[in-house]
């Protein structure tokens, strides 16, 4: 019940944000979620450092997200490079401890910067494209349908493990169910909001986005497993942490952005 109720509340908040079609409101929401996700990530990956140090690193990692607040990607690369440079400087001044080498600090900090700070930036940037709010709505639909379809199909029919060494709970049957569910709801969404798109293009886009989203989910599973953590947090009753819920969309948002930006959908 907690899982269902949390999902409904989250869907209501996110759906309201999309309906209002305000870039500023959307950016504020995504930035807040992204920062929480960064806090969770660094709590998992850099537990040996103080809360103030992890908070500083999380805020630095949010610079790419901060750079797109004016609905432009012009400052995205400079923000990414500047954040990376700051990590190197911080590592230089950190005490030289055997259990936390400086190169590992840079690697883990950079991973958080790229996987969360950079990838999340493409969520608000999606709406700067033609039909942008509709594309973001489609990405949301695909992600929710894929996660829901995979969860219930895998729970009821899962027999063959997908990647047992990384995520023992994921099955091939769950993957197929997620793909089928995402395609089904994407086609309904196309009829309602993207009639100018062909069925074939929507199906192909959905399959690509869903598979990339699965890769994002597995990437987060690797992060948690390598740090002996089950959930990224407990902020969402029945779901775990914020990062547990946004890992798929973090990976798929840049892919959808560039597929549209480079003209594959028009």
Write the layout of secondary structure elements.
Blueprint: H1 2-20, H2 23-45, H3 51-61, H4 63-67, H5 76-93, H6 102-125, H7 132-157, E1 161-163, E2 167-171, H8 172-193, H9 199-226, H10 242-261
Antiparallel strand pairs: 1-2
What is the compact description of this entry?
By secondary structure, the chain is mostly helical. It has helices at about 1-20, 25-45, 50-60, 65, 75-95, 100-125, 130-155, 170-195, 200-225, 240-260, and strands spanning about 160-165, 165-170.
Provide the spatial order of strands within the biggest beta sheet: 1-2
**Unreliable sequence segments:** none
Structural class: mainly alpha
Shape call:
globular
Name the average pLDDT.
91
Biggest sheet features: 2 strands, antiparallel
**Oligomeric assembly:** single chain
Number of strands: 2
Order of helices and strands: HHHHHHHEEHHH
Beta fraction? under 5%
């Amino acid at each position: 019940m907690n899982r269902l109720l949390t999902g409904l509340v989250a869907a209501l908040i996110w759906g309201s944000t999309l309906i209002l079609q305000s870039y500023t409101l959307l950016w504020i929401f995504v930035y807040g979620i992204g920062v929480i996700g960064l806090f969770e990530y660094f709590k998992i990956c850099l537990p040996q450092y103080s809360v103030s140090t992890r908070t500083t690193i999380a805020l630095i990692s949010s610079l790419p997200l901060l750079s797109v607040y004016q609905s432009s990607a012009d400052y995205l690369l400079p923000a990414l490079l500047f954040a990376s440079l700051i990590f190197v400087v911080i590592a230089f001044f950190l005490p030289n401890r055997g259990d936390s080498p400086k190169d590992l600090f840079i690697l883990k900090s950079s991973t958080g910067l790229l996987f969360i700070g950079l990838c999340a930036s493409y969520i608000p940037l999606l709406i700067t494209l033609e039909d942008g709010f509709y594309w973001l709505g489609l990405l949301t639909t695909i992600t929710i349908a894929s996660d829901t379809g995979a969860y219930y199909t895998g729970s009821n029919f899962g027999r063959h493990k997908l990647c047992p060494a990384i995520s023992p709970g994921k099955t091939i049957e769950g993957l197929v169910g997620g793909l089928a569910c995402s395609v089904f709801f994407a086609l309904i969404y196309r009829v309602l909001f993207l009639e100018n798109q062909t069925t074939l293009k929507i199906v192909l886009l959905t399959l690509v986005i869903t598979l990339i989203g699965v890769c994002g989910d597995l990437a987060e599973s690797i992060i948690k497993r390598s740090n002996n953590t089950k959930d990224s947090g407990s902020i969402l009753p029945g779901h775990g942490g914020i990062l547990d819920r946004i890992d798929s969309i973090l990976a798929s948002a840049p892919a959808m952005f560039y597929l549209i930006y480079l003209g594959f959908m028009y």
